[in-house]
């Protein structure tokens, strides 16, 4: 699956590079990630676990002010469960690291000489490469299989921000996971949610 995602990203970048007006950018920032758990008897949303993301993308014109932005992203997701809910003496924090391939459709609204406001949305597919669970000073790392999770994830991204005329970006986003990542839990679904803020630069 990781090879498939990287192959898709490579093809997208080659297509982008062939387009005369294509530009490239990079974004990085903080993720505030949560997990939603649904079962026959209850629905639970975890506290936020702070992580990070780094994204490289291509900006390909479609029509005036409308762009397609395929990319490759390293995304930290997961969630935190307070001691009062977990039954342990300290909070439990789960961090899941994904390689994702997003394809966003982005619309720019010119605001004058300072830059453009933008907003967009699009699907993403991801593959989990590392899972970590920590409680106080104790932590355990391993694969998604070790954590009893499916490594594949997919969903929809929403984003908005401001692009300055010099190329600097201020952006925020929300990742809505649509895939059940629980591996061996019949009747239970676990899905990723992540709110992000960050900065970047488009060349």
From TrEMBL:
InterPro entries: Beta-barrel_OMP_2 (IPR025665)
Keywords from the UniProt entry: Signal
Signal peptide annotation: 1-20
Lineage: superkingdom: Bacteria
Domain Outer membrane protein beta-barrel, first and last residues per copy: 21-181
Protein name: Porin family protein
Species lineage: Bacteria, Pseudomonadati, Bacteroidota, Sphingobacteriia, Sphingobacteriales
């Amino acid at each position: 699956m990781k090879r498939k995602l990287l192959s898709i990203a490579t093809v997208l970048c080659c297509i982008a590079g062939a387009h005369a007006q294509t530009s490239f950018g990079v974004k990085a920032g903080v993720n505030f990630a949560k997990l939603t758990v649904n079962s026959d008897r209850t629905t639970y949303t975890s506290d936020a676990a702070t992580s990070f993301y780094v994204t490289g993308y291509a900006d390909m014109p479609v029509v005036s002010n409308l762009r397609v932005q395929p990319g490759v992203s390293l995304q930290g997701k997961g969630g935190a469960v307070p001691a009062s809910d977990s039954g342990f003496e300290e909070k439990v924090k789960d961090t899941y690291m994904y390689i994702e391939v997003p394809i966003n459709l982005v619309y720019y609204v010119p605001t004058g000489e300072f830059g453009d406001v933008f907003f967009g949305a699009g699907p993403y597919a991801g593959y989990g490469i590392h899972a970590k669970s920590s409680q106080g000073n104790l932590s355990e790392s391993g694969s998604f299989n070790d954590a009893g999770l499916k490594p594949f994830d997919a969903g929809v991204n929403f984003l908005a921000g401001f692009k300055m005329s010099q190329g600097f970006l201020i952006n925020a986003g929300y990742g809505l996971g649509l895939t059940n990542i629980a591996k061996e839990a019949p009747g239970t679904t676990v899905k990723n949610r992540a709110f992000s803020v960050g900065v970047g630069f488009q060349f």
